[in-house]
Amino acid sequence: MSALPKTPSFRLDGKRALIAGASSGIGLGCAAALAEAGAHVVMAARREAPLHEAVAAVAQAGGSAEALILDIADVAATGAAVAQHGPFDILVNSAGLARHSPAAETTPEDYDAVMGVNLRGAYFLAQAVAKGLLAAARPGSIITISSQMGLVGGIDRAVYCASKHGLEGMTKAMAIEWGPKGIRVNTICPTFIRTPLAAVTLENPERLAWVTSKIQLGRVGEIEDIMGAVVYLASDASALVTGTGLVVDGGWTAD
Fold first, then answer.
1. Contact in structure between 233 and 188 (CB atoms under 8 Å)
2. Is the peptide bond before 8 cis (omega within 30 degrees of 0)?
3. pTM higher than 0.90 for the full model?
């Protein structure tokens, strides 16, 4: 009998990962997961004090981590920072913004703010990391935290949905362009995860009832539900996965 195939490694030893939006919520969970898998994590966020607390927590847990003050809405500063501190083998972009309102009441200011972070900022952050990998002739994994709302619509979420649907198209196009160079580009599409960003919705009993009625597994997501997904997409275990969204939604979009 021939030798059995071996599961590709989920380990990330020797890899450098940039995590944007790493000071709290899903971003912090992703940083902790990648550090636990052996990566050196460069944790980036706008708010200095929470970021340093997050870095200290990852380090205290045994991870290798450093802080980088970064606002991805500032495209020029982001490009310069990535060029200075890169190249990065892994990017996890968890920076995001939500300003929910009925579509008929959306202001240009709210539209521009959401798109400036969720789509424009994400685009040029991915571009900056890819430029570093291309210049170094290295493969890599670019992961953006999208949303189930990048696949469906939602009440009071027209702008947010537009930004996340845009991310899905951007991801497919970048994956086609950079695939021949060994750079994989994917998204993770979570349902409602219990984070500060989702608190306004989940603390409203009517909205919470709506959310749980749509999630077939009957519960709101937790940060831990995303951690295995990000390690998978960052590692050799997903070596043939690119241009797609890994949906972690408890069955929301199956209905």
1. yes
2. no
3. yes
Does domain 16-254 match CATH 3.10.129.10? no
Q: How far apart are CA 67 and CA 94, in angstroms?
A: 15
Break the chain into its structural domains and give their ranges.
16-254
What is the reported pLDDT for 108? 97
* pLDDT tens-digit map of 202-234: 999 998 999 999 999 999 999 999 999 999 999
Both structure tokens of 197: 């960003």
* Separation of alpha carbons 187 and 189, rounded Å: 6
DSSP 7-19: PPP---TT-EEEE
**DSSP 3-state percent helix, strand, coil across the chain (nearest 5):** 50, 15, 35
* Interatomic CA distance for residues 54 and 220, integer angstroms: 24
Catalytic residue positions, numbered: 160, 164
pLDDT of residue 255: 82
3-state class of 119 per DSSP? helix
HSE-CB at 191 with a 13 A cutoff on CA atoms is 23
Strand order in the sheet with 183-190: 64-69, 40-45, 16-20, 90-93, 140-145, 183-190, 245-248
Six token digits for residue 62: 């045994």
Q: Collapse the DSSP code of 170 into the 3-class scheme (helix H, G, I; strand E, B; otherwise coil) and give the result.
A: helix
